[in-house]
Request: fold
Amino acid sequence: MSEEFNNDADERNDVSDASEFQTDGQSVGAEPSETADDKTGLERPHGEIIEGANGGEGTIVRSAYLGKEMQNSFLEYSMSVIVSRALPDVRDGLKPVHRRILYAMNESGYTPSRPHMKSARTVGDVIGKYHPHGDSAVYDTMVRLAQSFSMRVPLVDGHGNFGSIDGDSAAAMRYTEARLDKAAMELLRDLDKETVDFQPNYDESLEEPVVVPARFPNLLVNGSAGIAVGMATNIPPHNLGEAIDATCMMIDNPDVTVDELMQVMPGPDFPTGATIMGSKGIRDAYETGRGSLSIRAKCQIKETKQGRSQLVIKEIPYQVNRQRLLEKLGELVRDKKLPEISNIHDGADRHGIDIIIDLKQNAIPEVVLNKLYKHTQLQVGFGVIMLALVDGVPRVLSLKEVLHHYISHQEDVITRRTRYELAKAEERAHILEGYLIALDNIDEVIAIIRSSQTDAEASSRLMERFSLSDKQAEAILQMRLRRLTGMERAKLEEELAELRERIEYFKRVLSDNVLLRSIIKEEMQEIKERFGTPRRTMIGGEAKDINVEDLIADESMVVTVTKAGYIKRLPVATYRSQKRGGKGTQAVNLKDNDYVDHIFVASTHSYMLFFSSKGKVYRLKVYELPEASRHARGTAIVNLLPLEKGEVISAVIATKDFPEDEYLMFATSQGMVKKTSMALYDRTRKDGLIAINLKDNDTLIAVKRVSEGDKVLMASTAGKAIKWDESEARPMGRDTMGVRGITLSAGATALGLEIAHDDACLLVLTERGYGKRTEVSEYPDQHRGGQGVFTINMTAKKGLLIDTKIVNEDDEVMIMSEEGVVVRTAVSGITMQGRSTQGVRIMNVADDDRVSAVAVTKKGKKSRKKENEADDVDIDDLDDDASDPSGSEG
Reply:
């Protein structure tokens, strides 16, 4: 395929013969009726000559379908990009532009033994002789070949500013100088011994190599990256010594396994170091040609004199721009996504590229490091695609296939080199044999020469007399007189003997494949000794996020949730234990009309399940809740959970695990209930899970944990209550609607759900402040779905039933009205009455006011616990060491 085909704008717009493509307004793809079948539309196989307007010579009109023409043209372009630009050859690991740069520098003599030469001169040589493309593309490629942070073994020795790992670009090519590096000479070694094929350059004025000898596996050592049309390659660099050892192992045993190869070449070795997390992606890449690597920066945790921690980033992942990394770190700190960081220093100097991150006093370095891996390029992925050209065809290759093709290339190189050297040796031996014949008969030779009239006659007579060849006769005629000395004869005989040994050795190499392969191994081992360096990239364990729980102490926290939706946590140690009858302490400063609706003591490792009015469940760990002071109100739940407009939290459950044999009982405002195993809620989604399916006009009002033998109490605003055994509701799935728990009269709604035993008491309260306590045993056991029985005699004076709560003798109840009036009274002061009685006034409510909410504050002994359930706790039992003179309670 022609090298002149490229995607430069001027070449894309070049049309060699416009007349062939368009005439008389008829363009390609127009399907003229003269050349297309009217019925089938098929293209006729020939063109048609149309007579010129002036009777002159006609123009050939070629009919073609536009789609077909586009397909053919695009395929030609694609193959040009694939073969001649974007993909490396499996044999030398070079793309055409790389190969031409190295070859042009070698031909011009810009070698390690010569001074550096201006980069502009090299670029000019490459463009003018071999690579007719843009100068910036050639220079950028040469710059990368010289960068030690881009190439594992640099092939160009640059002098001047060739860019930096911070993303700084190289100086203009008129300012920089370059020559071949010593390692590049090993790629070009024996190029002059007919070891590889040559092809004409773009204008056929010169020749260039199709491939270079590549005396070390450059495709693995320096890797390759390129995007062709419809395919891409991304081969990571490897350690030179390890790649050579793997090649030698493959030479010794062609059936070697990938695991055995990984013992000497465990994985890629990036020039910037860092750490590859896990070997699974490496093994996948080596076995199939495709794999995904996770690369992490190397970080050290240090302690400062002030007792604070520091993160020192020593090495960053391959191809990461260090300056952009610093900018990203600063952005995260400014946006308060990493509040644990107090300062960032750029500690780069001639010894390293350190980035120093100062942490705040109580920050946990491992947690901060895990966040940095997640949010920055301190951890990146590297998708390996080992795609290379094999005999001009792009193929995805396994490691063994790459080594196989490279070894085959080296066998070919050594074979061709040996043949070349054998021919040269035989030619020289042939001449020396002629010299010795002449010396043995020197007097006669001189006589023949003196008696001959011309060189041709002398040559002919010598050939006839001594049975010499043309070349031998010519060499004798050109022989100097000093060759006639005895010492010179001894040298000739010694040289001939050496040549005959070499000829025998060369013939043995050509006939013995084992010997040929041993030569390849020996020469590669020499290269390893000269250019090998220690491995820079470490291979660690699988890339897993640090388990934050292992870094956070397992301690008890008090979690409070208010009716208005504010939540906070603080250690139990914040409160001190008081004797019964203590005045308590202020636990939280609340807004008007707000009160504590839920309070738990839970481990930092426990889960908090938040059930919303729309039937969704959200999950957070206790340590994820914001920690606040004792007096702080807390953080609005809407800032922690992705709640929709109008969605509020109806229930909160704290648990450490999710046993399959324990259940949650749900209740809705329309009287539906559902019992579901807790195990079904042991998963999470960012936008919440469906906890229960609801009808359009229904809302979730309560969720309780329920155990075998528990009684379920439900009440309605109409003053009726029903009690049934929890076994009446069979277990259901998570994404279900449930069954009828209580049948409601017209206009009534369900108030809530209580779980109790017969020895408990039920507190009922109406919206006008009337209420009473009734033993649960007075409510008859019924089947689920009934209307229930009256729990209080309903009258217009009392208003609708507003709430029911299971209470103990030593509890307190807090009642709040719509106008914000709050009454707190002891449960023991509320009259114990029968089920169908009037009740007593508990709170005086103004004529235009109504009771809006009721909360129970537990005191004394903790309520009945389950093994995995967080304990309810009394605020009054939790006090700080310093007394609060206000005497107010949460």
Residues 1-47, 576-587, 860-890 have pLDDT under 50 and may be disordered. The two ends are 84 Å apart (CA to CA). The chain has 20 helices and 44 strands.
